[in-house]
């Protein structure tokens, strides 16, 4: 749910600047060459001919070039020039033919130098624009690019404490040691405590890793340096390493301190000696980081903290003992955690009496801290826009949907015919979602466009699922394909509206066959998918050799089978319930939003036990994991889904 717009913007700006400079350059060259009147270029032999026949006049003889007027084919006099050759007889011939000529001193070196100087200036300008100018926006001088851009926060301004971080009690507990140590390094040592050095916080984006690190600094009352690892590698080779060095130097001067590196995987990915040798700049930066990690003694009162959402791709050297050897998981919050996080953020706004944060927490499975902060913020904005005194339940509900799907687009005008297609498509999803046994409860269906979607069926999963069964995934494929199936059944024609559904279907089917071993024919196999984000040429090549062409064909067939049979099943469910389906389409067209209770009524079902009444599933036994090799979080199955 996060985006990297800022960085991209900056890139776009530099491209704009480059284009600008190229324009300036072309202009300069044109000006310098002053085309003025067009001179025809004559061969020297031709020129001599014209001299012999007196068809040239007003010559200027410069050291390298002779120019003047000549009589062209049309018999008119026009300017010309020719390259001068060593021709001692020329002057006597000119005199004999009574042609006027004058000599010109050699000043070509002046223009040469001017031209070169211009070039140099242009290059310096270009370099300055691309590499140094963006930094000035950060209020730093132009020549400081080797300095770390880390932001330092004084202990005195440190206002974030553990009170501000909710719902990750285990992580807080584990960080107590670090706080004790930072508060009094000497005492900690005397008591024989093993000195922590590097702490790796891992978890999905927005779960509060940065916030936790800041809170540790706040609790311990020490300086906090934060830098994003991606900043280290954005420029020239060598700068990243210099910045790492500078960051550590700054921290040492201000110890005790915490150095926090965000997105550690940006520099810390596994080094790979593939074809071409990998990414030099990143590797240099990583090496420098390792050197600094080994070089400082914990006694100096510095703790390095880092965050990543891909601990599995980190270079093993980074997480070895003595380096980032403490791994703390910061998971997406559970129901109670979400309620607590909402409470923390709701302190900043005035809540109406009808808002129950527990209910909000229930309706936001899969949301991380950043999403929840966003919900409260959006709700406050909505309430303010409507001139309300307090945030009401309706503001909260709208805010939740905004965070899931983007703002409503009521102004978008959709023709009645298209609306019919959209309604049928959505009701297809809804009916199949409601009538399959292993799917999450349908929350509502709407044809009010929101964000990118023209309409959507919203399913809210039951609280906190950690495992997904094959039946659930099969139902999911069926639900995803039901929109397209409905279009085909009702209109005998299919539209582009299903493209996102189809992408998701493909992704799920692939995953089932290739990663989860859920294909009957192929059995429990898991194939390397190489989804560690970075395409290394060498690694890519080697991956394709891990299975045979026969297996590849069988995989494709299994994926196709899954998709085809799910599509047939979706069509079957809709056809068998056609009357209810049609009625729901009409209701949806009329009301634009149909909620769970009414959906059930139309489908002639007993209302599904509402989420509030649903018994909480027993906490599943957490899968025991080796703490040494932290796994990436895979939260996808828990999110609220829109189709
Ligand atoms: P991460 O570093 O894991 O991507 P951040 O720490 O940057 O996430 O979280 C972004 C924002 O989300 C925080 O500034 C805070 O407002 C909110 N937030 C995230 N997690 C929590 C939490 N556990 N408690 C309170 N607020 C949170
Ligand atoms: Zn759809």
From TrEMBL:
Residues at the catalytic site: 426
Residues where Zn(2+) binds: 425, 429, 501
Gene3D superfamilies: 1.10.8.60, 3.30.720.210, P-loop containing nucleotide triphosphate hydrolases, Peptidase M41
Gene responsible for this protein: ftsH
Chain intervals with Basic and acidic residues compositional bias: 621-636
Subcellular location, principal: membrane
Location relative to the cell: Cell membrane; Membrane
Record's protein name: ATP-dependent zinc metalloprotease FtsH
Enzyme class: hydrolase
GO molecular function, one term: zinc ion binding
Gene Ontology CC terms: plasma membrane
Subunit description: Homohexamer.
Residue ranges occupied by any AAA+ ATPase domain in the UniProt entry: 195-334
Binding locations of ATP: 203-210
Native source organism of the sequence: Candidatus Avelusimicrobium gallicola
Membrane topology summary: Multi-pass membrane protein
Cofactor: Zn(2+)
UniProt similarity note: In the central section; belongs to the AAA ATPase family. In the C-terminal section; belongs to the peptidase M41 family.
Coiled-coil features, chain-numbered ranges: none
